[in-house]
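Figure 3 (text version): structure tokens given as input.
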């Protein structure tokens, strides 16, 4: 990962093809003016899908995400964070973690670049990652059709590989798991970290995931999720 200074902060990038990157690349308006916005994903805030060609010689699409606060702090500031050092910012931390995991062959998106812009003692951040083409999140998948026992076990085994590596996912939930051609990818590693494996935080990760399944099941009773599905996931998790 390389970092370059800008007038307002820093840009970090992982891929050689993005060396000319500028702060404009982290704005919706820049890509919109080029006609290169291909879609979006809407949750609490909007994430944009980008076609970087011909600015960058690639046929893949990118995902542009701005960092927003949640919880109580959101009432005081939507997107400003206290600056305590470049490598402690959420954008740089997530980019570094994704770069490490991707280099080790883990099922995570390919990281492209991140930006940190300072304003006094605060900063704002953005990240660009490669889009998993053709993927949908697990909520969309289970809203449409069930998964086989073998796929539930495969998902559990995948989560176990992350846990055995010591990968802590701060928000493991049904929407942060993508599926494409029976292959899973974990996304959104904001506030994620590598920490010593321990049953306490690993179980908390699983509990959080189960709560998200049950929450969505409560909203949509027809969601294809049952206690048996969860037990199959745990079977896969315990198989490694």
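Below: residues designed for each position.
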């Amino acid at each position: 990962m390389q970092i370059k200074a800008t007038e307002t902060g820093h840009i970090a990038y992982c891929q050689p093809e993005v060396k000319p990157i500028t702060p404009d690349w982290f704005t919706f308006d820049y890509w919109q003016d080029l006609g290169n916005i291909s879609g979006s994903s809407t949750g609490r805030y909007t994430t944009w899908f980008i076609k970087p060609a011909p600015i960058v010689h690639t046929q893949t699409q990118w995902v542009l995400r701005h960092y927003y606060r949640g919880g109580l702090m959101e009432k005081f500031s939507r997107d400003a964070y206290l600056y305590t050092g470049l490598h402690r910012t959420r954008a740089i931390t997530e980019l570094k973690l994704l770069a490490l995991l991707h280099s080790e062959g883990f099922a995570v998106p390919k990281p492209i670049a991140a930006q940190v812009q300072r304003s006094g003692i605060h900063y704002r951040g953005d990240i660009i990652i490669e889009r998993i083409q053709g993927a949908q999140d697990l909520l969309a998948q289970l809203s449409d059709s069930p998964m086989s026992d073998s796929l539930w076990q495969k998902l559990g085994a995948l989560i176990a590989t992350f846990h055995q590596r010591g990968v802590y996912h701060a928000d493991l939930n049904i929407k942060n798991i993508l599926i494409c051609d029976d292959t899973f990818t974990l996304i959104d590693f904001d506030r994620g970290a590598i920490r010593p494996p321990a049953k306490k935080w690993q179980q908390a990760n699983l509990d959080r995931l189960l709560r998200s399944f049950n929450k969505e099941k409560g909203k949509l009773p027809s969601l294809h999720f049952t206690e048996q599905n969860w037990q199959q996931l745990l079977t896969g998790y315990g198989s490694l």
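The two ends are 32 Å apart (CA to CA).
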